[in-house]
Design goal:
This protein is of the alpha+beta class. The chain is built from 2 helices and 7 strands. It has one domain: Cation efflux protein, cytoplasmic domain (Alpha-Beta Plaits, 2-Layer Sandwich), CATH 3.30.70. The protein has helices at residues 16-28, 81-100, and strands spanning 3-7, 10-14, 33-40, 45-48, 58-63, 66-76, 103-115. The strands form 2 sheets. Strands 3, 4, 5, 6 and 7 form a 5-stranded mixed β-sheet that branches. A two-stranded antiparallel ribbon has the order 1-2. A hairpin with a 4-residue loop joins strand 3 (33-40) and strand 4 (45-48).
């Protein structure tokens, strides 16, 4: 599914991959987020993704031009998960809505791991 907007000049279509990369980039900028996580369902191993793979820790679905975002993150040890989540939701929602012109209806956060950062 793709996001679609009609303008006086024509139709704009936004691919899910673009929204996933943008949401992932916005997420890793937030305080307390070490990075995006990829989870191997077979053996339960969590892997910290490099900056060029940010969309792999993000899943975007669109229904009636409303976006739902799932973020799989690794957080820094010692931070308040609820404070990180509140900040993450606020930043990602604002950035994705400003970028795409579409409404973010819901953001689900999955904390996959906690890491000690020196």
């Amino acid at each position: 599914m793709k996001g679609r907007m009609n303008t006086e000049m024509g139709e704009i279509t936004i691919d899910n991959d673009v929204l996933e990369k943008y949401a992932g980039a916005s997420a890793v900028e937030c305080f307390g987020v070490v990075g995006m996580a990829s989870v191997n369902m077979k053996d339960g191993i969590v892997k910290l993704l490099k900056r060029d793979n940010l969309s792999h820790g993000v899943n975007v679905t669109l229904e009636d031009n409303k976006i739902t975002i799932d973020l799989h993150i690794i957080v820094s040890y010692g931070v308040s998960i609820s404070a990180v989540a509140d900040n993450l939701i606020s930043n990602v929602k604002y950035n994705v809505e400003e970028f795409s012109g579409l409404e973010v209806q819901k953001i689900n956060i999955f904390v996959e791991e906690v890491r000690v950062i020196d």
